[in-house]
């Protein structure tokens, strides 16, 4: 299993490859707000653990194992953003909150949150009901 930090790298590499077709060390460093030398180090570790293949002058590609986990990590991030939006978290803090929690939930919890997101999406009345509760709590805090 990848560590939280490895997950961040795999997730960003997967995103970059989806968006641009490739992932350069400099792009990964920028996406994660870290120094390129940290990226090189981690990329070497991810290569050793067979999540990707890294060649210094030719860039990197994800292995099937890396792609599979990358896809799951991106799905998890997007699902948690949806969840945050549904429960009414302010838009400009959603990304950071998701980055903060995504590595610390079990896949069981992720699947159950998936059910909850689906529950709200299947009937817009459910979201309206939640908003009613939220409005009540604003005027009359618990
Ligand atoms: Mn993320």
From TrEMBL:
One CC-aspect GO term: cytoplasm
Residues engaged in binding Mn(2+) 2: 11, 77, 99, 102
Pfam families associated with the record: Fe_dep_repr_C, Fe_dep_repress
Principal localisation: cytoplasm
Presence of the UniProt keyword Transmembrane helix in the record: no
Activity regulation behaviour: DNA binding is strongly activated by Mn(2+).
GO aspect biological process, one term: intracellular manganese ion homeostasis
GO MF assignments: DNA binding; DNA-binding transcription factor activity; manganese ion binding; protein dimerization activity
Highest taxon of the lineage: Bacteria
UniProt KW keywords: Activator, Cytoplasm, DNA-binding, Manganese, Metal-binding, Repressor, Transcription, Transcription regulation
Oligomer status and interactors: Homodimer.
Family, per entry: Belongs to the DtxR/MntR family.
Record function comment: Central regulator of manganese homeostasis.
Name of the protein in its database record: HTH-type transcriptional regulator MntR
Gene that this sequence comes from: mntR
